[in-house]
TrEMBL record:
<feature type="region of interest" description="Disordered">
    <location>
        <begin position="319"/>
        <end position="381"/>
    </location>
</feature>
<dbReference type="Pfam" id="PF01145">
    <property type="entry name" value="Band_7"/>
</dbReference>
<dbReference type="GO" id="GO:0005739">
    <property type="term" value="C:mitochondrion"/>
</dbReference>
<dbReference type="InterPro" id="IPR001972">
    <property type="entry name" value="Stomatin_HflK_fam"/>
</dbReference>
<dbReference type="InterPro" id="IPR001107">
    <property type="entry name" value="Band_7"/>
</dbReference>
<dbReference type="InterPro" id="IPR050710">
    <property type="entry name" value="Band7/mec-2_domain"/>
</dbReference>
<dbReference type="Pfam" id="PF16200">
    <property type="entry name" value="Band_7_C"/>
</dbReference>
<feature type="domain" description="Band 7">
    <location>
        <begin position="32"/>
        <end position="190"/>
    </location>
</feature>
<dbReference type="InterPro" id="IPR036013">
    <property type="entry name" value="Band_7/SPFH_dom_sf"/>
</dbReference>
<dbReference type="GO" id="GO:0007005">
    <property type="term" value="P:mitochondrion organization"/>
</dbReference>
<feature type="compositionally biased region" description="Polar residues">
    <location>
        <begin position="349"/>
        <end position="367"/>
    </location>
</feature>
<comment type="similarity">
    <text>Belongs to the band 7/mec-2 family.</text>
</comment>
<keyword id="KW-0496">Mitochondrion</keyword>
<dbReference type="GO" id="GO:0009898">
    <property type="term" value="C:cytoplasmic side of plasma membrane"/>
</dbReference>
<dbReference type="InterPro" id="IPR032435">
    <property type="entry name" value="STML2-like_C"/>
</dbReference>
<feature type="compositionally biased region" description="Low complexity">
    <location>
        <begin position="323"/>
        <end position="338"/>
    </location>
</feature>
<protein>
    <submittedName>
        <fullName>Stomatin-like protein 2, mitochondrial</fullName>
    </submittedName>
</protein>
Length: 381
């Protein structure tokens, strides 16, 4: 009989300590009258089976045999592992989740007498709250709004655990397991998204490359046009300068010719030069077999021929006159040139034509030439 009573006492004490351990309570020490409560602990004292007071850390006194230490509550923060559970999202996807809940005892009296097996109650409440919150959102939002989901679970748990004297600090979803088909679909979606981004980046690179090439071509064309414009401007400036200088040289030549004409016998010299150029031009035309000469006076050919012959004879006679004025070899004395009052114009024999016209006698350009008045020799002149 004594053994049975001892067995019942030991079993009852073991069960009590097990329940106290699950209720975040530590092993209760025996009341020896003088008690030292450790820091971050709270001892619940019962006197004659009724709640009497809560001992705080430090030195405390109790009456042995009358006062009993019923519960020892830890005021430290405790982490409770929430086991795996299944939850269905709003788009009918089954998920398997687990997490960790962090809490601490805020009121030792309520934690001791408000609920039995407080950790079990908190675990069940956390699972049901998480299942309820998961059912309100879709699968994509589970990953996007994970932090918001944790805060929502903590808010619901804190409100429900307040009558138990327990404060829920935070909740963290640890693992989220998806069905295999959902994983494969998400993997394909991720790969498609990456291919899309790669294609977008490639197209953007091609666009930037095309823009750069167009900008380079535009710049090169602008520079080429600028160079061409400068070249044309320089060429036009050079041509204008050349024309200006040619005009200046011609003007200077005309001025010199005009000044020479104003001198003595200048007009005769001009007439002689014109006659020489006229004869040279006609002689050049005669050398070309494919050249046809059209006279300016097609109705008076005899006049044109007589005019050309008169010019030739006048030039020839002028050369003989210059040769006759050369100095003698023996005495070295200079002989005076033959003085003429005026060179007689050559007379061509008259030729009768069908129309009965008599050919005109054309004066040579040198008809008006007169010998110099001085007695100097032609060589000195």
């Amino acid at each position: 009989m004594f053994g049975g009573r001892l067995y019942r006492y030991v079993a009852k004490d073991f069960i009590k300590h097990a329940v106290q351990k699950r209720c975040f309570a530590l092993r209760t020490p025996r009341n020896v009258g003088v008690l030292f409560v450790p820091e971050k602990e709270a001892w619940v004292i019962e006197r004659l089976g009724k709640f009497y007071k809560t001992l705080r850390p430090g030195l405390n006194f109790c009456i042995p045999f009358f006062d009993r230490i019923a519960y020892v509550q830890s005021l430290k923060e405790v982490a409770i592992e929430i086991p795996d559970q299944s939850a269905i999202t709003s788009d009918n996807v089954v998920l398997h989740l687990n997490g960790v809940l962090f809490l601490k005892v805020k009121d030792p009296y309520l934690a001791s007498y408000g609920v039995a097996e407080a950790d079990f109650a908190i675990t069940q409440l956390a699972q049901t709250t998480m299942r309820s919150e998961i059912g309100k959102i879709t699968l994509d939002n589970v990953f996007k709004e994970r932090e918001a989901l944790n805060h929502q679970i903590v808010r619901v748990l804190g409100k429900a655990a307040e009558p138990w004297g327990i404060e829920c600090l935070r909740y963290e979803i640890r693992d989220i397991q998806l069905p295999q088909k959902i994983k494969e679909a998400m993997q394909m979606q991720v790969e498609a998204e990456r291919r899309k981004r790669a294609a977008i980046l490639e197209s953007e690179g091609q666009r930037e490359s095309a823009i750069n090439r167009a900008e380079g071509m535009k710049r090169s064309q602008v520079l080429a046009s600028e160079g061409e414009r400068i070249q044309i401007t320089n060429k036009a400036t050079g041509e204008a300068e050349a024309v200006r200088r040619l005009a200046e040289s011609r003007a200077e030549a005309v001025r010199l010719v005009a000044a020479a004409i104003e001198e003595k016998h200048g007009a005769s010299a001009v007439q002689l030069a014109v006659a020489e150029q006229y004869i040279e031009a006609f002689s050049g035309l005669a050398k070309q077999t494919n050249t046809i000469l059209l006279p300016s006076q097609t109705g008076d050919i005899a006049s044109m021929v007589a005019q050309a012959l008169a010019i030739f004879k006048a030039v020839d006679s002028h050369g003989e006159a210059q040769g006759a004025g050369s100095p003698g070899p023996s005495n070295g004395a200079s002989t005076s040139p033959t003085k003429k009052s005026k060179l007689a114009p050559p007379v061509l024999p008259s030729s009768s034509k069908s129309n009965g016209h008599i050919s005109e006698i054309v004066s040579s350009p040198t008809d008006s030439m007169e010998p110099p008045a001085s007695d100097k020799s032609l060589d000195d002149r």
